[in-house]
Design goal:
The chain has 455 residues and is mostly helical. Helices cover 75% and strands 0% of the residues.
Length: 455
C-alpha cells in the first residue's frame, strides 16, 4: 500500500512539475521575438494545398477555414500541441530519473532558442513536427526501459505522422523503425502477429489516411527534386569553376554570368568571420538557382535531364563537397536571404544581413559550439564502441543505446537533407532537441566516469 502511495506521489510530483514547466514556457513564448512572419514563402503551398505538399497540414488549414477560424488561431493550436508534447517529454525525463541539471539545461536550450520558438508563429509544418519529435524522444526513452506494446505503437504512430507531415523526415522514419524492429528481434519478441498489429497496421492507417486526403484534392503527386537537382547542377558547376576556372556546358547565358559573379563574390569572403558567411551564401545561391536560373518549360525537358545527369556523373566529387558544405552550414544557423527585400539580385547582395555581435554571440558561440560538441559526442561513441569490441564487456546502458539511436537518426536526416536541398534553420531545429539531448547526456557520462576514476 505504501509502495503504491509512493508511486502515485512521484507520478503526481513529476506531472505537476512538467505542467508548470510548460506553463512557464508559454509565458516566455508570449515575449519571444517574431523572427519569422506569419506567412513565409513556403506557406502558400500549404494554404493553397499544392500538389508538391503532403496532405495533413493543408487539411488542418482547410478544416480551420471551413469552420471560419483565422490562421492566427492556428498559431494557438501550434502552441497548444507543442506544450502538451513538452509536458510529456519533461515527464519522461523525470520518470526515468535523468539528472535534474541535465533536464534543466535541455529545457533552457529550447526556452532560449529564438529560432526554435519562432517557428511556432508561422504557417509551416515545423511547429507540429517539433511537437512530434518531443513525443518521439519521450517514447524512445520509455522504449529502451520497457518495450511495452503501448510505447511501441506510440513510436510507430509518431514516426508515421512525422513522415506524412514532413516527407523530408523519411530517414528518421527508417532509422527509428529499424531500431524498434532490431531490438524486438534480438529479444525474440518480434512475432508475425505482433508485427502486423503493432507496427504494420499503425503505419498503414496513417499513410492510407494521408493518401486519401491527398487524392481527394489532387490527381497526382509532384516533387521539387527535379528543380533541386537542377540547382545543385549549377552549384556543382560553380564549385568546378572555383577549382578549374572552366565551365564546359551550361543551359543558358544567365547561368554563366551568375557563376562568374558568384565566384568573385565568394573570393572576397575570407577569415574566420567570413567562413560561416560563405557557407550560408552557398545555400543562398543554390536556393536562387532553384527559381531564377531556369524556366518551367526547360526544367521538364530532355535537355534539362541530360544536363543534370551529365553534370552529376562527371562531377560526383563536387556534389559530395556541396553536400558537405551544406552540412557544415547547419550549424551556422541563418535564414536564407529573401531576395525580394533587396534591389540587386544575387550574387550582388549585402555582405552580411546580420549584425556582427549577433553572429558572434548567437551563431558562433551557441550553434557552432553545439555543432562541435555534437561531433565530439559522435567520436566518443565510436571510441566506446571500439573499446567494447576489444574488451568484450557490456558498457552501454539504456541512455547509451538511446543516444546511439539518436546519433544515427540525426546524422542520416542532416546528411540526406544536405544532399537533396539546402541547409536551413527549419531543418536543423527539427532535430535540435535531439542534438542537445545527446550532447549533454554524453558529456555528463564522461564527467561522471572521470570523477569515479579519480576518486
Amino acid at each position: 500500500m505504501n509502495f503504491s502511495y509512493n508511486k502515485f506521489s512521484e507520478f503526481s510530483k513529476n506531472l505537476t512539475f512538467s505542467i508548470l514547466s510548460s506553463f512557464l514556457y508559454l509565458l516566455v513564448l508570449l515575449f519571444t521575438p517574431r523572427i519569422f512572419s506569419l506567412i513565409e514563402p513556403d506557406s502558400g503551398g500549404y494554404i493553397d494545398f499544392s500538389n508538391i505538399r503532403s496532405s495533413f497540414y493543408p487539411s488542418i488549414i482547410n478544416l480551420f477555414e471551413f469552420i471560419d477560424i483565422s490562421l492566427q488561431i492556428l498559431i494557438i493550436f501550434h502552441i497548444f500541441v507543442f506544450l502538451i508534447s513538452l509536458t510529456y517529454f519533461i515527464y519522461q525525463l523525470l520518470k526515468f530519473k535523468l539528472n535534474k541539471f541535465i533536464i534543466f539545461l535541455i529545457y533552457l536550450s529550447l526556452l532560449l532558442n529564438i529560432y526554435y520558438n519562432g517557428f511556432h508563429f508561422t504557417i509551416l509544418t515545423e511547429s507540429l513536427s517539433f511537437s512530434i519529435i518531443l513525443l518521439l524522444c519521450g517514447n524512445l526513452i520509455n522504449f529502451f526501459h520497457s518495450k511495452s506494446k503501448t510505447v511501441i505503437v506510440n513510436i510507430v504512430f509518431n514516426v508515421s505522422l512525422l513522415l506524412c507531415l514532413k516527407p523530408a523526415t523519411t530517414p528518421i522514419f527508417v532509422v527509428i523503425l529499424l531500431t524498434v524492429l532490431l531490438n524486438l528481434w534480438f529479444e525474440k519478441k518480434l512475432k508475425m502477429t505482433f508485427f502486423f498489429k503493432f507496427i504494420f497496421l499503425p503505419i498503414f492507417i496513417i499513410i492510407s489516411l494521408e493518401n486519401y486526403l491527398f487524392y481527394s484534392n489532387h490527381q497526382e503527386k509532384k516533387t521539387v527534386l527535379e528543380r533541386h537537382f537542377f540547382g545543385k547542377s549549377i552549384m556543382i558547376k560553380l564549385l568546378s569553376y572555383q577549382e578549374n576556372s572552366l565551365i564546359d556546358e551550361l543551359p543558358n547565358n544567365n547561368t554563366y554570368d551568375f557563376i562568374k559573379k558568384a565566384d568573385s563574390y565568394l573570393e572576397n569572403l575570407s577569415g574566420f568571420y567570413g567562413t560561416c558567411l560563405k557557407l550560408e551564401r552557398y545555400g543562398d545561391f543554390e536556393n536562387y538557382s532553384y527559381f531564377y536560373l531556369v524556366n518551367e518549360k526547360y526544367l521538364n525537358s530532355i535537355e534539362s535531364k541530360n544536363f543534370v545527369k551529365k553534370t552529376f556523373s562527371n562531377n560526383i566529387n563536387f556534389y559530395i563537397k556541396l553536400t558537405g558544405l551544406h552540412y557544415l552550414n547547419f550549424f551556422c544557423v541563418a535564414t536564407p536571404t529573401k531576395y525580394g527585400f533587396y534591389i540587386d539580385k544575387p550574387p550582388l547582395i549585402p555582405k552580411d544581413t546580420f549584425d556582427k555581435n549577433y553572429r558572434i554571440n548567437i551563431i558562433y558561440f551557441s550553434f557552432l559550439g553545439l555543432g562541435i560538441t555534437f561531433i565530439f559526442t559522435n567520436i566518443m561513441y565510436l571510441f566506446f564502441f571500439l573499446r567494447n569490441l576489444i574488451v568484450k564487456k557490456k558498457i552501454f546502458d539504456q541512455i547509451d543505446k538511446l543516444n546511439i539511436t539518436l546519433i544515427f537518426t540525426i546524422q542520416s536526416y542532416l546528411i540526406t537533407v544536405a544532399g537533396l536541398t539546402i541547409s536551413n534553420p527549419r531543418y536543423l531545429m527539427l532535430v535540435f532537441p535531439l542534438i542537445v539531448f545527446v550532447s549533454l547526456t554524453t558529456l555528463y557520462k564522461i564527467v561522471r566516469d572521470f570523477t569515479k576514476m579519480t576518486n
